[in-house]
Amino acid sequence: MDRNEIRSQINALVKEYFSSVTKVQFVLDKTKIPLMLPPFGWEEVNESIDSLLSTQLTMGVKVKKFESMFAQYIGTQSATMVHSGSGANLLALSILTNPVVKNCVKPGDEIITPAITWATTVWPIINCGAIPVLVDVDLETFDISPAEIEKAITPKTRAIMLVHLLGNPCDMDKITAIAKKYNLYIIEDSCEAHGAEVNGKKVGSFGDLATFSFFFSHHITTIEGGMLMTNNEEFAELSRSLRVFGWIRDLKAKDKLTAKYKDIDPRFLFVNIGYNLRPTEVEASFGLHQLGKLDTFIEIRRNNANYWRQSLLKYKDYLLLQVERKGTRHVWFGYPMTVLPGAPFTRKEIMDFLESKGVETRPIMSGNIDEQPGLAMFKYRKVGDLKNARIIMRNSFFIGNHQGIGKVEREAIITYLNEFMTKRV
User: Which one of the listed residues 164, 218, 219, 330 is annotated catalytic?
Assistant: First the structure.
């Protein structure tokens, strides 16, 4: 049997393996409903095996193909794949603070960002020498408040790093107007918002730079992985250099730079600082097949969220539920709830009850980052008392919402919540 025959047999066996996996029959009060379930199948695995058997493993043709596909999906001119969403955030800030950028962000300049966020939205601001300025969020959307952004602006303000938290798009009309008024950069952290839209335009295409994550728990996955998006060719070219050590190998200007520095081996010519943020061909193998499944996964999430909201509206005196804002497409990374102050139960009580039923829960990302001890070691500024962020830190949580939750599972969650409420209210 030659190699091609062996490879065909492997592929057939992988496909057979996945087709033989049957979904566990759901049993009320026994079957667990996790925050996430792996969203991939035999196509991704066989594509990855193809890369492994070829021995072409590090960043190559599949990475480039996935970058092109994802840029087309989001609607940007460029996409640069990296090893994580956090790495994409670091790359974005490293671009804006790089001295080759004429209007670069300098050490001590301020970047406005929401207090409710994930830690690695804020850490790269500090890593790159800028000062994070925390502002409050809207209690109903968890997204950064445009009014609070404008309150926070000083002569040192250079950028807004917003977050489309849990897949809920920010108010981009107001935010882009503010950025234009004060000549500020916009960085969109879209790591939880694949496919979210504002007025038919996908998030990740509004800002000067935008980031996505393909971590295992996200809408689609490359196991680990992330993407940097931009319509600015200077930023795109810089991203390709900073991603890999600051060398020239992936640059469009490679030949010009080689001619300029002809005494240096062009394979090892470094024109800037940089990192090793390279993705692998195995990760891109997943992305090539995952992207085509994304909109189907999103519709499942949207249907779940709509069912839960309609079923829980009777508890509106106790639970604050998110609603999709007019003109937007919310993609529901998870399904969040906020226990209203004065409710006859606490967040811990409702979370503990759901966990006892096998429904996995978690707080809202890093919570109010102002209260995290890691931030206290560094210089930052906050605007106001962050009242809503403090409420979300103590009163909000979310449950899983993914392609593995169907009619039976979503109805079970309402059964559990009805049981809890009957005992408490």
Answer: 218
Which structural domains are found in the chain, ordered by start? 49-292 (3.40.640.10), 293-424 (3.90.1150.10)
Q: Is the pTM of this model over 0.85?
A: yes
Rounded CA-CA distance 189/145 in Å is: 15
Strands 157-163 and 185-189: parallel
Residue 343 CB neighbours (<10 A): 19
Q: Which helix (H) or strand (E) holds 360?
A: none
Q: Is there a catalytic annotation at residue 194? A: no
The continuous run of DSSP H or E covering 402 comes out as none
How far apart are the C-alpha atoms of 58 and 159, rounded to whole Å? 33
DSSP 104-130: ---TT-EEEEESBS-HHHHHHHHHTT-
Kindly give, in sequence order, each residue whose CB lies less than 8 Å from that of residue 136, ignoring residues fewer than 6 positions away: 114, 115, 145, 148, 383, 384, 386, 387, 388, 389
Angle between helix 347-356 and 407-424 (nearest 10):
130
As a whole number of angstroms, the distance between CA 105 and CA 116 comes to 23
404: which 2 tokens? 């593995």
Q: What's the burial of 257, exposed, middle or buried (CB within 10 Å: 0-12/13-18/19+)?
A: middle
Q: pLDDT truncated to tens, each residue of the chain (425 aa)?
A: 788 899 999 999 999 999 998 888 999 999 999 999 989 999 999 999 999 999 999 999 999 999 999 999 999 999 999 999 999 999 999 999 999 999 999 999 999 999 999 999 999 999 999 999 999 999 999 999 999 999 999 999 999 999 999 999 999 999 999 999 999 999 999 999 999 999 999 999 999 999 999 999 999 999 999 999 999 999 999 999 999 999 999 999 999 999 999 999 999 999 999 999 999 999 999 999 999 999 999 999 999 999 999 999 999 999 999 999 999 999 999 999 999 999 999 999 999 999 999 999 999 999 999 999 999 999 999 999 999 999 999 999 999 999 999 999 999 999 999 999 999 98
